[in-house]
Amino acid sequence: MDDQVRIFDTTLRDGEQSPGASMNREEKLRLAHKLADLGVDIIEVGFPAASPGDFEAVRAIAREVTGPVICGLARADHQDIVRCWEAIQGAPKPRLHVFIATSDIHLEHKLKLGRTEVLDRIAREVAHARSLCDDVQFSAEDASRTDPRFLSQAVAAALEAGASTINIPDTVGYALPHEFFDLITRLRQDTPGLDRAVISVHCHDDLGLAVANSLAGVRAGARQVEVCVNGIGERADNAALEEVVMAIATRRRDLGVDTKINKGEIYSTSRLVSTVTGIAVQPNKAVVGMNAFAHEAGIHVDGVLKQPLTYEIMTPAEIGIGQSSLVLGKHSGRAGLKNLLQEIGYQLGDEDFERLFGAFKVLADKKKEVFRDDLEALIADEILRIPHRWRLKYLNIVSGTVTVPTATVIIDDGYEDRQEFGSGVGPVDAVYNTIKKITGTNAQLLRFSIASVTGGLDAMGEVTVRLEENGYTVLGKASDPDILVASAKAYLNGLNRLDFLKRQAGLAPGNGAGGQGNSQSPPTAGVGRNDS
Ligand code: KIV
Ligand code: ZN
Q1: Residue 307 domain-assigned?
Q2: Torsion over CA: 146, 147, 149, 154 (sign)
Q3: Is 17 a pocket residue for ligand 1 (Cβ < 6 Å)?
Q4: Which of 17, 47, 96, 141 has most ligand 1 atoms within 8 Å of CB, for mutation?
Q5: 126 lies in the same domain as 177
Q6: In the chain, which end has fewer C-beta atoms inside a 10 angstrom radius, N or C?
Q7: Environment class of 333 (CB within 10 Å of its CB; exposed 0-12, middle 13-18, buried 19+)
Q8: Given a cut of 80, is residue 345 above it in pLDDT?
Q9: What pTM, to 2 d.p., does this model score?
Q10: Share of the chain above pLDDT 90, in %
């Protein structure tokens, strides 16, 4: 049997369904290029029927990103498939991914269809997809809770209609590894012709078993694994790309398979996904967490210094972690900045580079040493963020043990500078109350957190906020050596994201970047889509 496991990355589709992780076209394009550099075999770039914004993003990636197969998702529905094909057909290697649920619970309560109707739908719509695209993948949603005999019939129908990849999802993260192994094994035995197709597995992490189940699937014969970078995804997430890839790389001989991933790109890809989505990587996260290679206990440190293999089963260098920690200072010039950018995996156009250089000089004046993490935070703030409607121009805060905290804020709203003054129970509250006056927002602040990006008293403070309005949830993120400035910028970043989503759905006036929507459109992925 083929010993290569294809890595199907769905960060831009299922990952985007993680609450607050919605991405715009430019952010998706940047990530898609990075995933191509990482060497994934297939990128699932979106669900074109979900919203005009998703359609545009998928179409742009299909036209621009070369290397991996570019895949779009569609329900087993005529119009969805047509729309998906319109979006992906510009790709050199397009794939149409058609799905329908097969478990009784989904048939009865969600689809309100009988089994025969589902089989007919599979035969008809997979054949329709195949008439448009040579590469068709079929997914039996909720496969792990489907009657195995019916699952085999559904898969047989898809194969007969022309699907060449069959995906078996554990949609609700319910399976145990031995059950998932048995499910794939039995399906292979019971379904004639399945061994001529590629079997794929797609596992969610509701019980923390997504990676274990994916590997069980591989052991049973699956040769495609669907994953998301940092394991982001619907509810409790998807199997994490970096964990699946490093498990296979580290235990290659035992598993008898390999992937084609450029492992040295794993860490920078993880950072980029975290930056773009605003979802932080937990410090104890396997492979890419801050502590994944940190040794605290004296006995461990001693062992690692004598021989890294005593406590390290893989090395940080393998996944591209931190050759250089100290980087630039205020005397560094353009060449130094360019060098470092290259090292951490960013290629910026001239205009973006000049903007970043200007911001770097301002930061280097405030901080003696600019570290790689500082630079990534700057890139997030200056380059990767969605178009700003509101920009912070001035902030002055008065606070202390005997003063009512007050703030004066000036915001550029694209037309003019608007100034307000306000107070609050603390300095952040005063800043946020004043920003509310200027922007007129009704968004609710669900969460506020501060972390330090680098070490030392002059470290960049990184603030993350979670905001909610009209059913949309977004994350806002910003960094600055001054935590009150970072707080103000993070809040504005969240408000800009909300504004972008509302424009995209036609809920807000204006002619911003997302203005191609209408009020009939479902919200963009990650903020309410629930079909998959
Ligand atoms: O979890 C799931 O079942 C899915 C399918 C659309 C593949 O995301
Ligand atoms: Zn899924």
Answers
A1: no
A2: negative
A3: no
A4: 141
A5: yes
A6: N
A7: exposed
A8: no
A9: 0.79
A10: 60
